[in-house]
Design goal:
The chain has 265 residues and is mostly beta strands. The protein folds into two domains: 112 residues, Jelly Rolls (Sandwich), CATH 2.60.120.380; 111 residues, Jelly Rolls (Sandwich), CATH 2.60.120.380. It is built from one helix and 21 strands. The chain has a five-stranded mixed β-sheet, with no helix packed on it. The protein has a five-stranded antiparallel β-sheet with strand order 3-4-9-6-7, with no helix packed on it. It is elongated.
Length: 265
């Protein structure tokens, strides 16, 4: 974790999976509201999640060409946004939505948004869960690109963690909310999830009582949906066709009349 306060070194977001920019809005912005600015760099292209933990706070992030790459506007609760950033230097401006608010503390969490490729062989997301702080629940968002669909089981190593996978329309296609690690279930007891090719958003919510940053792993493992602990409990389409064909052959054989062949001397 990288903890950055104003007037310290310029952080490189690519060097840490989690960073936090924090400070006070002691300056005055162009709109007359209390504001502050912080600079950070990116050394490797990637997608990042930005989450402002304070209410009624505006954030604007610009690149070194003074182009706005993303904006965040929180209201009664925390707010977030994601942006794909290339190598370069960026400036984040924090300002109060309420001009009469005066000087306030602020903090913004920055996490790398992973892009996980899912094939027929499955996929694994490796991350670090952060303990809740300053009203932040530690929610993470990542991108899953399914290039080969199939049926999978999921295995998450962190206890008491919720996760959900949503399609581009926000529909949940897979989710788990367990009070114990999935690893304590046998492979054949775990629920299965059918994933079609496409891009999905993975949301991970770590336990609220997490005390320190904790590494976790979320894996999708291919699974034959017809397989149970007692064996194959359902027939596949091919198996059904072969069985019905064999039954017809047996029936035909049992109904066929025997024939007698005589030989003349």
């Amino acid at each position: 974790m990288t903890d950055i306060t104003a007037a310290t070194y310029v952080p490189n977001l690519s060097s840490s999976a989690f960073s936090q920019l924090k400070g006070k809005t002691t300056k005055i912005g162009s709109d007359g509201a209390n504001a502050d600015t912080q600079t950070f760099t990116v050394s490797k292209s990637g997608e990042f999640n930005f989450k402002i933990n304070n209410t009624f706070t505006n954030v604007e992030i610009r690149n070194d060409r003074n182009e706005v790459v993303t904006t965040i506007r929180s209201k009664e609760s925390a707010a977030d946004a994601s942006a794909r950033l290339g190598p370069g230097t960026y400036t984040a401006t924090f300002s109060q939505a309420n001009r009469a608010a005066g000087v306030r503390d602020y903090s913004m969490d920055v996490t790398e948004r992973q892009n996980v490729l899912v094939t027929g062989g499955g996929a694994t997301l490796k991350g670090t869960a952060q303990p809740p702080a300053n009203g932040d629940t530690g929610v993470q968002k990542h991108t899953f690109n399914v290039v080969q669909g199939g049926t999978f089981t999921a295995d998450i190593s962190l206890p008491n963690t919720r996760w959900a996978m949503m399609d581009k329309d926000g529909k949940v296609v897979a989710a788990s909310d367990s009070g114990k690690p999935d690893a304590q279930q046998t492979f054949l007891q775990k629920p299965t999830y059918k994933l079609e090719p496409g891009q999905y958003t993975m949301v991970v919510v770590p336990p609220g009582d997490l005390k320190s940053p904790t590494d976790f792993r979320l894996s999708f493992v291919p699974r034959n949906p017809d397989l149970s602990e007692s064996g194959l409990n359902q027939e596949s389409a091919i198996q059904k066709t072969l069985r019905e064909r064999q039954d017809r052959l047996r029936q035909w054989a049992s109904e066929a009349k025997p024939t007698t062949t005589s030989t003349k001397a």
